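Support request, please re-run this one:
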Amino acid sequence: MSINGYELTTEWKVVGGMSEVAFAKKGGKEWFIKKFISPKYPIAGSPGSERIKEQKRKNCIEFENRQKKLNDCIKSKCGLGGNLIYAVDFFRHETCYYKINEKIDVSSISIKEISRLNTKDILIILRSIVHSLRILHRENIVHGDLKPDNILIKMTGTGTYTAKLIDFDDSYFSECPPKDREQVVGTPEYYSPELFDYISDEDDDMSLAKNLTIKSDIFALGVIFTEYLTGEKPIIPSKYSGTYSAVKHGAVISFKSSSHMTIELKNLLLAMLDLNYKNRPSVDEIFDVLRGYKKEALDKVVDDIVVVKFESVNIRKSDNKVELEWCVENAREIRINGSLPLPKKGKKFFPYADEYILTIVSDRGEKKEEKCRPKKIVEPVVKPIVIEADGESKLRGDLYERTRKK
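Re-run finished. Output below.
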């Protein structure tokens, strides 16, 4: 089968549900060819009314112009063999659009393998990714689908590591995402909160488009960097579908314990995962943090457990109870005064006590205790118990008095 002079050498293979890929030959070289399943350009004989076909043509022309403009912009900033693997050809054949890339080795070091490297090598990888992404962001281009599969990590001939960014199919210029939301795909695990809002908006509110900036990539990068440093995504409550959802609802975000995770890196990740995209750091700011690392900084490892809050906030005299509020990060299990296991964040009334002990078990099984006392002491209301002894009665409780035996 020949498409625009490219002779297919393999069968088509569906990837991601939105495209098919294969290899082809042209000019004595082998190429990687991608066929877009959507959008499809209506031609003579295509189904649908003329009104619907006209709208599809407009969507297709928008898609075609955006892809060509983005690709030309990326191509002007780097050549073949660089760290951005862009398309060398883009065209429409009959109803479908096709993109041609140079054939490269797409093997990459896995997330688990990266997290087991020494901290110095991981930092080199993170800097390499940021350096590549900086080329896009300086042109106000949003990658749109940053995830480990689209970041190829390889060891160079000198024994160091480098990163290549691939797949710019979902890219767009900052604040100008596709009007046709079906063309904004991405990967839900790495969605930013504002990307989810734009995709899921049923009213097609185009004012949300201005929120989709290059800072959306920074959120996705925060999730990816967490995986590279700890081997896992950020830890979120199980009721949320992804990091973006937990952040949207104000849930506490924590990270798996890791010898690589310094206080500085943890603060950087939390900033990258900020709900307000305007507060997230730029690629230049991230690069400066990573480049400025010294050995002393790498020696400062974050505590396994961080107690954000543990205090008495209310005393209820009616039933002699104290309301406690707590918030803990990096904990596998928490209890207060031997209670049943509690969530990492909450507020609850407990029977009055002079002191409360928050017992926390980390992911590694280590225990930590935090103490607090009620903000003010309230005299408990205790019903007296009458005990007869030597012809007298004694009232035992917090109050004592003597009475004559009747």
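Confidence is low (pLDDT under 50) at residues 295-304, 377-382, 391-406. The first strand starts at residue 2 and ends at 3.
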